[in-house]
Every structure is written in structure tokens, then in C-alpha cells.
Amino acid sequence: MRMKRHAAAPRAALALGLFLTAPFCIAVDAITHTVASLVPADISRFGFISHAMAQPGTLTKAQSDALSAYDTALNSFKSILRQRRAQIDGKQTLPNLPGQALYLARTSVMSAYKDLTDVLPSRIGRPNKLGIPPAYFDAGLEPLLDEYVKLFEVMQAPPANAQKSDTPFKDVVDLGRVIARAKGLGAADAEAAGRISLGLFFAETNGNQNIGNARSNKYKGSLQAGTSEDQNGRRKWAAIKPTIAALDPDLSRRDDREEARAGHLDHRYNHWTAVRNALMNAHADIFPQIPGIVKTLPDPIDQMKLFELIQIIPTPTKSALRSGNPMSYRVSDPRIMGYLRNNSMFAYGRADRARTSATFREILDAMWLFNAKFEKALSIADEIKARSKG
Questions:
Q1: For residue 298, what pLDDT is reported?
Q2: Are residues 220 and 272 both part of a single domain?
Q3: Does one domain contain both 208 and 132?
Q4: Which of 18, 64, 170, 230 lies in the 20 to 30 Å Cα band around 28?
Q5: pLDDT tens digits, one per residue of 178-230
Q6: Domain ends where: 124, 155, 186?
Q7: Is 345 part of any domain?
Q8: Do 185 and 227 fall into the same domain?
Q9: Among 202, 146, 151, 147, which Cα is nearest to 173's?
């Protein structure tokens, strides 16, 4: 079983980094900023009193302890944000995996806040712009997460020799769609494959092409693949290339141009070849199951979530699909639960962290930090489809 992991925390991407993994789950259109173009954030100015801390009254020991733990976690988060900002602005050498401490500190803040609202439900505040359930996040802290995203933009910026595409979203949809057709799917199901592929792009990179990974030295590029995964996908693509050429000669010619352009470059840093190889490595063999998946999960967001789980916990997800009742399939292996937690599922608050098992339906429901990414991908896929018909 190949699970994607990120440094000190066990992980099956993201991602959220989460990649998550992956950077935090906020969609940004492109990483074009340099250190010089980012406006330095004065983290010390975030001296506001959160909704959770602003309520007067006598607290029980459990409530007081939860408030103290949250205050400690929040101060630690602000401290690491200040430290990374100073290092970047001062052009200092960053530590290995510079995003890991940020990610863990952000997770700690959300977890401590959930513990606080569990013992003080009245302290749950207003909705936040990020779509995080208010019980997990104080909306007053939005500026801190804005800074968090800016730091990851710098730390994960593509290398100078990366080969971008002027049509990155369309490329992903086109590749997903043609691979599905080569696997025998009809037009409607191939359209779903293209849409799902775009969701994976957003889940893994926030829709940014050719990025590095501030939480991993292994997973890179537009679909956050490892070297062996990229090479395996490249071999699989070569095997079906004659079928692709017959189905879509124009796309095949584009592929030839991109392959020649990439040359001896790490193919994960050419957007086209990175997406192509990653899809072939992990998802192409699952595409023939899309008709059944769509029937079981009519919500396109749920479909994207299921395919993202192929990235995070591939073997259990494939077992669930083979079971005949995938949404009731239960995961109880502590390692698998650990990989889910390191991808922001069941990671916040004592109650969630104490879970020892979950069904796939419960896992999909716990992927709420992915919702904004997938909604963005769905919107863009719809626009691409509309333009192709126009």
C-alpha cells in the first residue's frame, strides 16, 4: 500500500498539504508572487480579542482549561507565522520542510478551538469566509490564515525552470476526459472524469501549477506526485498513446509537443506531463468505475472527494469500491485513521481525535476543508464545458 506522507505527521497529500495536503484549503488562482511583491504582514497587530475569549462569566475548570489551551495554541500559531515571515523577508535560509510547523500550529489552533466550543457551545461565533464550520474556527482569525496562505505561496513557488501552461484548467479536464474515453467510457462519464480530475488538481495544489511542497521533499508538481509515481504514469500513458492518438489527434499532437518541451526536465515540473502521468498512475484504472460511482454518489463534490481518497488512502478506497456498498465500508486500521487525520479529517477536538473507525460516508462528510476547493473546480469545469459548446 502506497500512502502519501508528509514529514513528521503521518499522512497518506495534502494534499492540504495538506497538501494537504498541501497548503491550507483555500483556493488561489496562481502562485505568481515573489517575496518582494508580497506585502509583509505585521502579525503582532493581530491583538484582537476573539469571540471565544470575549465572553464574560464564571467558567468551570474544564472551560477554563480549554480557554487556556486555546490561548496557548493561538499564541504559538502567531509566533511561527512571525518567524517564517521574518525569515522570508530577511532572505534567510528556511529550515527543511518549512511548512510543517505552520501546518501543525494551524491544526492545533483549530483543534483547541473545537475543544473550547465543545465545553462552551455559546462561544461559537459567526460564519467565516473560508467555509469552515464555526465550531472549529473563530472568524476573527481570518487575517492569520490569509498570512498563512501567503507564506505557503512563497515556500511552494515553482522552480525557475518549471514549464507552465497558459490553459492549466482546460489541460486537466482534457486529459481526464481523454483518458476516460481511452478506458472505454462514453461521453457523459468521460465528462465526469474531466471534472473529477480538475477537483484533484485543486485538492492537491489549490489550482496552482508546478508547485513544490513545503511539507514534503517527495511530492511535487501540479498533481503532487513522487518520482516513481510520475515515471509509472508515464509508462502507462505510453501504453495507451496509440488509442489516445486515434481518439483525439489534436490532443496527441499537443502531448508530443509537451513531451519534447520537457526533454530531460523532471516531468513533474511541466504542467501537462505532470497531470497526465499522475492521472495515469493513480486514477486511470478507477475511471471505468465512474458510472457506478456516479450512481452511488450523484453529488459531483462527493465524487471528487472519493477520488481524492485514492490519493490519500488508495488501498482502503479500492477495497470500499469492490465491496458493493462503498459508503458503508468501515475503516478501523489506526494507520489509516492517522493518514486521514493528517489530511484534516477527524483531526480537530478530542471527540474527533478519539474516533477509532469511520465509514466512507463519514469520511466524505469529514472532508469539509476540501469543499471550497471542489466547488471552485466544479465551477471552472462548468465554464470550460460551456465554452466548448459555444
A1: 97
A2: yes
A3: no
A4: 230
A5: 999 999 999 999 999 999 999 999 999 999 999 999 999 999 999 999 999 99
A6: 155
A7: yes
A8: yes
A9: 202
Q: Are 184 and 284 part of one and the same domain?
A: yes
**31 pLDDT more than 70:** no
Instruction: Identify whether 29 is part of a domain.
Output: no
Confidence of residue 130 (pLDDT cuts 50, 70, 90): confident
Helix (H) / strand (E) element for 106: namely: helix 98-119
Residue 146 sits in the same domain as residue 79: yes
- CA dist., res. 19 & res. 224, Å (int): 8
Cα separation, 214 vs 282, whole angstroms: 22
Region 350-365 average pLDDT: 96
- Residue 77 lies in domain: 35-155
Q: Taking the CB of residue 213, how many other CB atoms lie within 10 A of it?
A: 30
pTM of the prediction?
0.86
Is 362 a domain residue? yes
Considering only residues 320 and 13, tell me which one the structure prediction assigns the higher pLDDT.
Answer: 320
Count of structural domains, the chain: 2
State whether 198 and 145 are in the same domain. Answer: no
Same domain for 288 and 176? yes
In a domain, 377, yes or no: yes
Q: Which of 155, 187, 205 is the last residue of a domain?
A: 155
Say which DSSP state 171 is in.
H
Mean pLDDT of the chain: 88
Q: How far apart are the C-alpha atoms of 299 and 6, rounded to whole Å?
A: 30
